[in-house]
């Protein structure tokens, strides 16, 4: 079992706390072990820390831990959202178009998604 440290912006952090977010998604970078999300295993631990809009860690907020319940790979955002459900992935997005804008707002995500696709990671209940 491996623990993966992942930064999330504040609204995603809040969705994790509330339990609204059921699926975490990441665009992998196979050349970087810490971002080779396809190598995750069931029961690995995701340790989420909140980051600000400049992706700097917010130390005042506690780390949230969840175990991995599923791992699925998708070639594109639309296929991922069709299979996983927008509200499970991005609870605040109201359309596929809005969700795509969210994904493309992250540095280098558009290129990484086109090259490597996306990994959808199912979250079990929070580990306290």
Give the count of helical stretches.
Answer: 5
- N-to-C SSE string, H for helix and E for strand: EHEEEHHHHE
Q: Residue-averaged pLDDT, rounded?
A: 95
How is the largest sheet built, in terms of strand order? 1-3-4-5-2
The helix/strand class is alpha+beta
Radius of gyration: 14 Å
Largest sheet report: 5 strands, mixed
Residue share in helix = 25-40%
What count of domains describes the coordinates? 1
Distance between the termini: 17 Å
Low-pLDDT stretches: none
CATH topology: Archaeosine Trna-guanine Transglycosylase, Chain: A, domain 4
CATH architecture: Roll
Q: What portion of the residues fall into strands of 2 or more residues?
A: 25-35%
